[in-house]
Amino acid sequence: MDAYCGSGLFALYAGRHFEKAVGIEISEKSVEYASNNAQLNGLGNCEFQAGDAAKLFVDVEFLGSETVVIVDPPRKGCSQEFLDQLFSYAPARVVYVSCDPATQMRDLVRFLEAGYTLERLQPFDLFPQTRHIENVATLARPL
After folding, report:
1. Residue 91: how many CB atoms within 10 A of its CB?
2. How far apart (Å, rounded) are the C-alpha atoms in residues 141 and 112?
3. pTM of the prediction?
């Protein structure tokens, strides 16, 4: 599952390695691009829907224990509403991509409080000579 999927980058890549990939994005135009990208790449197992990521888990057909959720929120990070539903769903793993280490760290504290373990945190300097940095955190829920 890919929350805040944009034009489908992560879901399209994951779709090659998983039975099914689902992305959600608030921008209907981005969902249109993501769906077109899936079609162009012959990925019939990728689905995209327009909507608020905070409502992502309402009609999920996957078991949380068998699911990896990719989260790539805007700079402000994840809303408490989104995190509450995510923790309730209890996915086995979460990959949290962030363009703001401060809001990511705030959210990672919440993950730790919810019982997740931080397995890896990898920064990427995609914008050299600026203060901007991307972080990818991999979290797991103990079995």
Report:
1. 24
2. 10
3. 0.88
pLDDT in tens, the chain (143 residues): 999 999 999 999 999 998 999 999 999 999 999 999 999 999 999 999 998 887 778 777 888 898 999 999 999 999 999 999 999 999 999 999 999 999 999 999 999 999 999 999 999 988 888 888 999 999 999 87
The token pair that represents 83 in the structure block: 């995190």
State the architecture of 66-143 in CATH terms. Answer: 3-Layer(aba) Sandwich (3.40)
Rounded to the nearest 5 degrees, what angle is found at the Cα of 93, between the Cα atoms of 87 and 99? 85
**Residue boundaries of the structural domains of the chain:** 1-51, 66-143
Active site positions, annotated = 99, 134
| Local structure of 98: helix, strand or coil | strand
